[in-house]
Specification:
Helices cover 47% and strands 26% of the residues. The two termini are 32 Å apart. It has helices spanning 3-17, 35-58, 63-89, 131-136, 160-175, and strands at 23-28, 92-96, 99-106, 110-117, 121-127, 138-145, 151-158. It has a 4-stranded antiparallel sheet. It has a 3-stranded antiparallel sheet with strand order 5-6-7. The model is unreliable at 12-18 and 180-185 (pLDDT under 50). The longest helix is centred in the middle third of the chain and has 27 residues, at 63-89. Strand 6 and strand 7 form a beta hairpin. With 189 residues, the protein is an alpha+beta fold.
């Protein structure tokens, strides 16, 4: 085998390895999970405005310091909201034709990735936990595995019935293919 033949065979092997699975969906949590940081931020705005309003109303000599306080407080508030927004925006559930991946982002630097192959999924259940969830069409999804390694619980997903149906359809399609089946030759030599 020549050098050229080996390089061509490696190119074909690389093509087989880099075959990507078809993406079915990418979903984020329902944005209602940002309501607590929004409410806390609004309270922080009110607390931050107290020294400024007192200094401005009474024309105290520390009014310039209160404006500096207001600017610093605003920067802290923006950082607080950015921390929670980044955590929500980069936390996703990804379903491909081969696996289910959950990426959870906490703040700026902490990320957790959990993957399940579709042949390892035993059941997919969902719960709509209350009136608010029913009104806004969000709920929790619980995925149980065959391996006994526990379950994957994903909270506050939009339209959990649709997600459950799509995951189960992908599991069914994955199990009906010949990807994991082994063929044994039963003929005697």
């Amino acid at each position: 085998m020549t050098k050229r033949d080996r390089s061509q065979s490696r190119d074909h092997a690389d093509e087989d390895i880099t075959t990507e699975a078809e993406l079915i969906f990418v979903e984020r949590q329902f944005p209602i999970v940002l309501r607590i940081p929004l409410i806390v931020g609004m309270v922080l705005i009110l607390v931050g405005l107290v020294p400024w309003s007192i200094a401005t109303a009474n024309a105290y000599e520390w009014q310039p310091q209160s404006i500096t306080w207001l600017i610093v407080w605003s920067l802290i508030l923006v950082a607080y909201w950015a921390y929670h927004f980044i955590g929500w925006y980069f936390s996703v559930l990804i379903l491909t034709e081969e696996e289910l991946t959950r990426i959870t982002q906490k703040g700026f630097f902490r990320r957790t990735v959990q993957s399940l192959t579709l042949n390892n999924i035993q059941s997919v259940n969902y719960t709509v936990p209350g009136m608010q969830a029913a009104l806004f069409h969000f709920g929790d999804i619980k995925i149980e595995t065959l391996s006994g390694s526990g379950h994957l619980r994903i909270k506050t997903m939009h339209k959990p019935a649709r997600l459950q149906a799509e995951i189960l359809e992908a599991v069914q399609a994955y199990s009906s293919t010949d990807r994991d089946t082994l063929v044994y030759d039963t003929q005697d030599d």
